[in-house]
Amino acid sequence: MPRVKRGVIHAKKKRKLISKVKGYKWGRKNLLKAAKVAAVKAGVHAYADRRKKKRTMRGLWQIRISAFAKEQGLSYSRLMDALKKAQVEIDRKVLADLAANNKEILVRLLEEVKK
User: Fold this and answer.
1) Burial of 68 by CB count in 10 Å (0-12 exposed, 13-18 middle, 19+ buried)?
2) Domain count, the chain
C-alpha cells in the first residue's frame, strides 16, 4: 500500500487557522497550539454574544420607549399596559424606532389609545 503524503492538507489547515487568528496578540497569532485554542474560544464568545446582543437591544428599546413615556407624563409600564389593553400589537423594536425618529406618529397613536 502506498503511503499518503499529507503536507498539502496540513499546510491548508494551518493557513486557514492562521488567517482566522490574524490580528491576535502574542503567540496566539502564529503558534499553532495557541492559535487553535484562541480560535475555539473566539467562536464560543461569538456564539454567546450573538445571544447577548438580543438582550442588550431589548433593554435599549425599553429605555427609548420609557424616555418617550416620561415626556408624555406616563411611566413605561402604564404606556405598555395602555397599548396592550387597546390591542395595539406593535413590538418594542418598532415602538423604540418611532420614539426616536417619528414622535408625532407615536403621540397620535397614544391619543387614540387614551380614547
Assistant:
1) buried
2) 1
